[in-house]
Amino acid sequence: MSVLVYVENWDGKFKKLSFELISYAAKLAEMMNTSAIALSIGNVSGEELDKISAYGAAKIISATNEELSVFDNQAYTSVIAEIAKKENAVALVLSNNNAGKALAPRLSVKLKAGLGSGVSRLPQSIEPFVIYKKVFSGNAYSNVKINSEIKILTLSQNSFGIFESSEKTVIEQIAVDVNAGLLKTQLKDVQKQSGKILLTDADTVISGGRGMKSPDNWGPLLELAELLGAATACSRPVSDEGWRPHEEHTGQTGKIIAPNLYFAIGISGATQHIAGVSSSKYIVAINQDKDAPVFEAAQYGIVGDAAKILPKLVEAVREIKGK
Fold first, then answer.
1. How far is Cα 32 from Cα 69, in angstroms, rounded to an integer?
2. What is the pTM of this model?
3. Strand, helix or coil for residue 52
4. Contacts for 50-53: CB closer than 8 Å, 24+ residues apart
5. What is the dihedral of CA 269, 244, 205, 290, to 10 degrees?
6. What is the full per-residue pLDDT of the chain (323 aa) written as tens digits?
7. Which residue of 54, 112, 226, 228 shows the fewest CB atoms closer than 10 Å?
8. Residue 129's CB: how many other CB atoms inside 10 A?
9. What is the 3-state secondary structure of 267-321?
10. 116 in helix, strand or coil?
11. Closest C-alpha among 286, 297, 134, 299 to residue 221
């Protein structure tokens, strides 16, 4: 019996998300009186595998096959399911990101497993198996009972934390066979963004809305982001107007993120936008309208004109940082 956690790698490298997943799986395994096994798929160096050995997994399985160098939902599902059966996994843990959302439903069908998506805490109980999760775009919470023998959970990013462990970890390298008929994804071209922090990886995000009034007013926002080592984002109306690139659009119809700190500057706080950022640990809102819905979601708020407040905020941060 085990808890199997799939840890995604990006070009052979693990990120903070992988450490959080293993930390969660290790604590879950402890609750279930078993051990956690981490599964990596693709070519990853021994040095990288060593990095994930400090977070509580009793074993790390590195499954390799040249045909798995490109992520393919069907092929990866097949590999994870086979290893889950081999390791007698009673629970599987994946990230609630694009990859996890693609894999989890397929695994649920293949393993006849109940699926709890977007969890942010450990189960409230093991017998019965009850999870706590957000529902209705984060506006409510629900306790969900999973009755199946095997459980699949997808963990919301940046919701649990990272915990190091003294657990001794064994690294097992295996070569896996893949049914050629499952390999449907072909990589035609790769265009990488450089010199910019990715939204999904950022601990701090500075986001602007129509309250910025013009694309010409973005200078102080970008300066603040640079000072704080933050990623930049925007609301949908801003990207629709062409003020900012579409890849910066956050919200229910854009990127769903969960940074430690999210600045909503000149953003009214429509339900669709808040649904995409509600998992942020702290939200700071700046808006002229004291009744703007964004203040209901924010832990800290400033009522005022962003054009006047931002330069003062930049000045204060520069003074603190001695720049």
1. 33
2. 0.81
3. helix
4. 50/171, 51/14, 51/19, 52/7, 52/14, 52/18, 52/19, 52/22, 53/169, 53/171
5. -30
6. 999 999 998 888 898 889 999 999 999 999 999 999 999 998 888 899 999 999 999 999 999 887 777 788 888 999 999 999 999 999 999 999 889 999 999 999 999 999 999 998 999 999 999 999 887 766 778 899 999 999 999 998 888 889 998 888 999 999 888 877 777 676 666 666 555 677 877 889 999 999 999 999 999 999 999 999 999 999 999 999 999 999 899 988 888 888 999 999 999 999 889 988 988 889 999 999 999 999 999 999 999 999 999 999 999 999 998 86
7. 112
8. 22
9. CCCCHHHHHHHCCCCEEEEEECCCCCCHHHHCCEEEECCHHHHHHHHHHHHHHHH
10. strand
11. 286
Tokens 């402890």 label which residue? 30
User: Which structure tokens are listed for 184?
Assistant: 């449907």
Whether the CB-CB separation of 205 and 259 falls below 8 Å is answered with yes
Residues 6+ apart with CB under 8 A from 227: 314, 317, 318, 321, 323
Tokens standing for 165? 């462990």
- Single-letter residue type at 247: E
| Residue corresponding to tokens 């701090």 | 204
Tokens 């994804």 belong to residue: 185
